[in-house]
UniProtKB/TrEMBL annotation:
Residues 16-260 form the ABC transporter domain. This is ATP-binding cassette domain-containing protein. PANTHER family: CARBOHYDRATE TRANSPORT ATP-BINDING PROTEIN MG119-RELATED (PTHR43790), SUGAR ABC TRANSPORTER ATP-BINDING PROTEIN (PTHR43790:SF8). It holds the Pfam family ABC_tran. Gene3D superfamilies: P-loop containing nucleotide triphosphate hydrolases. Keywords: ATP-binding, Nucleotide-binding. It comes from the Bacteria. GO terms for molecular function: ATP binding.
Amino acid sequence: MNPIERTSDEQRVPVLSARGLVKTYGHVVGLDGVSLDLYPGEVLAIIGDNGAGKTTLIKCLTGAEIPDDGELRLDGEPVHFRRPQDARDAGIETVYQSLAVSPALDVAANMYLGRELRRPGILGSMLRLIDTKTMRENAKAELRELGISTLQDVTVPIENLSGGQRQAVAVARAAAFGSKVVVLDEPTAALGVRESNQVLELILRLRDRGIPVILISHNMPHVFDVADRIHIQRLGKRAATITPQTHSMTDAVAIMTGAKAA
């Protein structure tokens, strides 16, 4: 049992919380008063049919969209993200389904993409030279800490890696810089069984390190394997928040489709 289950929600302060989020696109309602809490050291899955508002919710939580109404709090303090960089600066890292990796660059360079380390002294400050050695050492240490044994050589170009290995690099990058929250959007969608299991193990390792994870997935067995709680979206609203202990996969699908009330 995850340690978080032994403490009631009332006694815990959410790392990230949303209250009454509203987002409309003309006459189309993306979010209709959605609330959400993400607690320390937990995996919160978000599920729902296409058009249920999952993507819009994640975009509002990570700065890709600005909600029309509602409030976001990080560690209990109000935050206002105007762009994704604001969320990243606050410690919220997102791994999208497209991964956003550069195939020609190696593993270490991709982990530090957009955050490249400069060499000490005048070489870095004036000549802007990249500290490749330190980035590779740090990348190797992060991969080792996450238990990613399939990536021994951080100098290998991303284009030479399998889909699962590329996903591992993206997750490791998020773990390295996501000091508060890591958001994973369909991380196993294009992977086989073995590689999917490796990604699920990575998610649990993140949780064990105390980093809360938001997982968006259509794969119910995966959700029920790793999630501590499951937030169900339906027609732009939160239909229910359940746990794998209190509800079955059949229950979750029934709530998601409207065949059953929470």
